[in-house]
Amino acid sequence: MNSLRVAIVGSTGYGGVELIRLLLQHPKVTIASVISSSNSGVSIAEGFPHLQEILSDELDPIDIDLIKGKADVVFTATPSGVSTELIPRLLEAGLKVIDLSGDFRLKSGELYGQWYKHKAAEPQYLERAVYGLAELFGEEARGVDFISNPGCYPTAAALGLAPALAAGWIDPDSVIIDAKSGVSGSGRGLNLSAHFSEVNENFSVYKVNRHQHIPEIEQTLSLIAGREITVTFTTHLVPMTRGIMCTMYGSLNGDRTEEDLIELYRKYYEGRPFVRIRGKGKWPATKEVAGSNYCDIGFAADRRTGRLTIISVIDNIVKGAAGQAVQNLNLMMGWDEQTGLRLTPIFP
Amino acid sequence: MNSLRVAIVGSTGYGGVELIRLLLQHPKVTIASVISSSNSGVSIAEGFPHLQEILSDELDPIDIDLIKGKADVVFTATPSGVSTELIPRLLEAGLKVIDLSGDFRLKSGELYGQWYKHKAAEPQYLERAVYGLAELFGEEARGVDFISNPGCYPTAAALGLAPALAAGWIDPDSVIIDAKSGVSGSGRGLNLSAHFSEVNENFSVYKVNRHQHIPEIEQTLSLIAGREITVTFTTHLVPMTRGIMCTMYGSLNGDRTEEDLIELYRKYYEGRPFVRIRGKGKWPATKEVAGSNYCDIGFAADRRTGRLTIISVIDNIVKGAAGQAVQNLNLMMGWDEQTGLRLTPIFP
Amino acid sequence: MNSLRVAIVGSTGYGGVELIRLLLQHPKVTIASVISSSNSGVSIAEGFPHLQEILSDELDPIDIDLIKGKADVVFTATPSGVSTELIPRLLEAGLKVIDLSGDFRLKSGELYGQWYKHKAAEPQYLERAVYGLAELFGEEARGVDFISNPGCYPTAAALGLAPALAAGWIDPDSVIIDAKSGVSGSGRGLNLSAHFSEVNENFSVYKVNRHQHIPEIEQTLSLIAGREITVTFTTHLVPMTRGIMCTMYGSLNGDRTEEDLIELYRKYYEGRPFVRIRGKGKWPATKEVAGSNYCDIGFAADRRTGRLTIISVIDNIVKGAAGQAVQNLNLMMGWDEQTGLRLTPIFP
Amino acid sequence: MNSLRVAIVGSTGYGGVELIRLLLQHPKVTIASVISSSNSGVSIAEGFPHLQEILSDELDPIDIDLIKGKADVVFTATPSGVSTELIPRLLEAGLKVIDLSGDFRLKSGELYGQWYKHKAAEPQYLERAVYGLAELFGEEARGVDFISNPGCYPTAAALGLAPALAAGWIDPDSVIIDAKSGVSGSGRGLNLSAHFSEVNENFSVYKVNRHQHIPEIEQTLSLIAGREITVTFTTHLVPMTRGIMCTMYGSLNGDRTEEDLIELYRKYYEGRPFVRIRGKGKWPATKEVAGSNYCDIGFAADRRTGRLTIISVIDNIVKGAAGQAVQNLNLMMGWDEQTGLRLTPIFP
User: From the UniProt record, which GO molecular function terms apply (chains A, B, C, D) (predicted)?
Assistant: First the structure.
């Protein structure tokens, strides 16, 4: 059987390097090209010694012809703004694309401009991109040639809220998302807010009400609920490397027990292997999904206040980026969703 | 000038050890007795080598007569349930008491029984205890002989919410408190949930809607707002040792800008040196108060959702325990509130 | 093809849980029984929620007949002293055994008693156990029915020192091993020295000159060097979960450059896929092997002092425990050493 | 009484900010000017919100006349190479100087050039600088106008080795120093090696045999031993913010017990309040000196190998930088060495 040849643009970021880890153990795929806008000609193992004797390919420059010659599918794990220009050219060259940047997630170019502070891609490409959140919109991604991979926070938030919103069990105007992320979410770039001495033994909050993932979350939740939804969204930085937790609040419509919610969610995610619903009185922790593609969800329903608390966790680099991208590759190629992704979380 | 002689019951817990650190640099106080229910006769520096050549007193047993002979004021940093019995005896012996346990914070013994799962202290002592949250109820503590020191979460939550609630700027029925704490908050006891390999590189949630600090928070906020308040309260464990952040949400009554809030809070806390209000668009981080008695507060008002986000941080062992207890000692003795507490946060 | 049925005694410790993670992805193995001296009848996923929907087998008690009925090979990841009694019974029942405890690593029962402070196993079993450090004694393990899995520190230390000692390039009387380990090395037991608030933001030293791995290291190095070797060995606790680094010092015999050493080591470990030798001026870090079975080694030769510094790193739970045990299973069964162990380190 | 007016050049680095924390509680000093080569005119509290309402002075530029007008003593916490030029001008202007950079620690300009890779200061200033390691060379610093503050590693290493070397108890040719530091040691600059996601849950080694502190350590030890000493020195990065441990090895001359060593060291450091010698079988941990000016030392003497292991710990920013600088200020001014430095370590 022939292996699918894949290329990774942005292979020297954390998302790119995690793609390498996952694709190396994917039975149907060969990494044909690791690409970086800088350092071309240097072995990827030079900057990432953990890859020594595993993958020592030289970094390729971003060159459409070169990519076309080497690969069938391209992952673009590029900073926001780069995919906007690059992906149309990749698609025109006949390549299939899975984009891990935020450039094609919003259907509205106007919203994109507002939140990302630069120009959106051409509308035709925004339209063409299939938003690859399989657990909510799954079959849409099968067989397409261009998938936009969801953001880390939007994945954790939407998976946690969708069933309750779809069922009308919580008031769509009451949704508050208190999100916490490990530091790897902000990438490998050098910044005081990722400096060990500033982050370690510290808990901080950032971009309150201003995070560019807000419109993405609202777009998904509005689709699910069938009406416009506006959310309060706060992001915090946790002194750890990997993991996201979303603690979400909504006012319950009617009297729902935790058992009701567990049943609702298990039914909603039936056949979706990467979502795990915790039992009554159990809540997930980020370490329980570390290194894996799972999203784990738990509940607390409070009679005193009439509010529901939903807790969802993911590994931000796996289900929140590279793992979900491989899941989308599997769907794109018509393979079993779990191919290469049956990863047991690494504990402790 | 004669030094005030103080005794610390529970001196081998984290609250007790921090009291030692703070009282050692207090100009008007002498540590007369360090007391522990076990290990009496052993030097405190044996179990806490950081105290070598600083304080090597032998641990005293819990013995009312002994304490009475040695001390004027007693700090009780004991597990919940111990103070219930001990403090009446200390008071009857004519000692002044500052209690760091939760046993005398709730005025209602019934609520105490419900949330703490054991019997409350005698009503007369619950009544007699002055709840020592100086920034909200300050002058009440001056000159009294029995102060109940507030809990760590209730301190951070109430200081963050009080001015907005008192002013009627947020809907009292809309309050959600998403709280995060370092691991030291759960003490020095051995427990899997404090095991390094389980906590490190992990973010978890616990006691959702069930934390015993809920009625304490509600008691304070109800007093401030002049009506019954019920809150949603979630507690998370952060992989760090010290620090609490409360991220709090409320629906704004009317259109209030962040400038309005900053002005409101600065006026409310005027003359209260331990509360610092951040400027517009600035939010505090836990490390910015580490080792100090400050509570720092910041805001985000969101026009899109009509909600206010309030962020407050404290060092859970200082303003959330030992530091506030020393502040209460200062008030009890009629001294300047800041005596021995002019601590610059330790950074980084 | 029939899967090999394996049982894990001590499956609720960190070594046991890591064995589960590795064996779940091993193509030739089925986990037939997870065994614990306590909690039998409870699902393993109850205590380890990261295994939910992956492995929910109930824990079996330690019962030789039960094990015999279910399994072909038994991993014993038990505390020191338990294997001593248990393994003879497993072997007599015709089971193959790979022991992760320290009970069968020392050939001398007397030395065992001296360092482990309890009675050694019967001499015949000490003799029968094959010490499974494949990179040094590889073919000995092929086809045997009882393998003693090396300790974490001895693995990192011996792999780092063996080639230089075998070649006579360093003075055998000059060896100093300064070792550092993550906290998981001390297991899941509750102990103040694993309490997050005591370990975090702390670096400490323990068991100086007294660690029970000392005679194991000396036994291996003496075999390699062909003469008695005594080492200075210091162990430190690093505020991290996984990883061991050994920084090792020896006086160079003759003038050896780093290039010489790299060549020597690459030749020595030729055909051994789990040892990776860093290039000149490069030294490994623990994160570069995290989650994988690699041992990475680097060098610094100092003309000023005539000393060689060797740095080796492993993941203490993988190459230092569960991964090496699976490697030994592969050898025992005559399979390719890397079966199920082609693990890319997880980074970051 | 008039306060001494001090200026801090480089006040926005970690050393500078810690000087501020310490000097704010110094009873005889006023911070007259906080100076930074950039950002002049901006409040120091802008970049360091932990200083809000404590110190909000605007940053001054580096301007000799300005400094001369405002201050009596200047601390220079500047990157290596800057003090070389700046300090002669400060001295010529009649200011007293305590230099925290490495520019004036080596008496040999040639050695400086070799290890620091840029040109040394004028010989007359190298001569004039008094090396301020009070516990070894104490009285030399009294009353002088220019003190060079020792490096962090050299402080921990020399304090740990000096008494044994001075007594001739260890072979001067056998000294190996295995040093470990928290990340703050490398400052606030942005660098991949201080990036949280790369450092956290990682233990690494750097600059093996090449650290610029090597000649400083050798200069001190040679003075103490009365002969040339060459050491092997390895530096490691610990995933924590503060703290240094040096684990040091030497061959014992004669049979010395741990009791002998404890007695030797206690006598050697008699009257030196910042060195604490641990009791038999006790070794210090970095957290036990955190935030304080202590250097704690412990021993293990090994009959099996004839080697001595010495363990010393300091807080790298306090005794390794700012605290020692204040100690030197006290000596320079003829004050009690401990003025403003009676700091209890912060635990946990």
Answer: N-acetyl-gamma-glutamyl-phosphate reductase activity
